[in-house]
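Hi,

Apologies if this is the wrong queue. I'm a grad student, and the batch job for GNAT family N-acetyltransferase from Aeromicrobium phragmitis produced an output file that my downstream script rejects. I'm not sure whether the problem is my script or the file. Here is the sequence I used:
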Amino acid sequence: MVTITALDVADDDVYAGFHALYARSIDTQLDPPWEFRELRLKLAGDEYGEALVLVAVDAGEPVGGAWAELPLKDNVQNAFATIFVAPEHRRRGIGSALWRELSPALRDRGRTIVAGEAVRRVDETESGSARFAENLGFRVDLVNAVRELPLPAEPPAAPARDGYRLVAWRGLAPEQWREEYAHLRSLITQEAPLGDVPWENEYWDAARLELEARQWQESGRAAQIVAAVSPHGALVGHTQLIVPDASDEVYQWDTLVLADHRGHGLGLSLKAAAMREAADLLDGRRRITTWNAASNVPMIAVNEALGYRLIGYATEYAIDLPRS
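Support response: The file is valid. Your script probably expects a header line. Output copied below for reference.
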């Protein structure tokens, strides 16, 4: 008989079993599983967000799990859920049972919209995770394209022009830029293409940047940041390369150029500069992976100019929870 209970990520043995199951259940190389330390920090929560974590156990062995991330400073009506089941235990209703436990717990915490993601390779027409989401009643909200850049790769020459300049750092932003950078980080939601789910701007301040830098260090991640400075001296764009020390993967995270400063080639300049600044971190790595909305034609053009190739799609799903 399968039982579902809350999981305490502070319990070393329990968490180790949970992570091992999770890592084994992610059977696509498009979106590799979070590493052991990374996921533990993610699920432990902090003053900016918390997580609900569930594990399904059969005959004393974990067979499936779920978690939901709940922002605490913004988007307090939304949650982002992940559900997984061991390959040999699929099609037994375990994933659905996990959702039946998770959804009322989220509703009790005031969440009215739950989002999730289903990934498929470019040569697939559908995926098991997409069928699962749709069977639960989730609707398609946004389709993201997944691209990879095989390494080593030489970025094109793309210096900043028109009076703009670039600044670079690793980890925590220098104090002179911290307040401006926190503001810039808060704008990605309103500046990036979105679906129908109402996502508010994220809450960022200098304290959160400091916490993020500590968490990167604790989880074994290096973060290479490059930012664009306008002719008037303001931060107007940035990009992030995230490099875990426990794998050969590299992730291209947020890239943002404010609307009033587009048309100057800053997207390409930022990404090319980040690769050069992070050359030592990229040495020996297999690839850089990036996601962006499939409708974001300008960013797709930047990625293709850098040599990225399309390898799959990550479809964002959403469902409305009935009010309690």
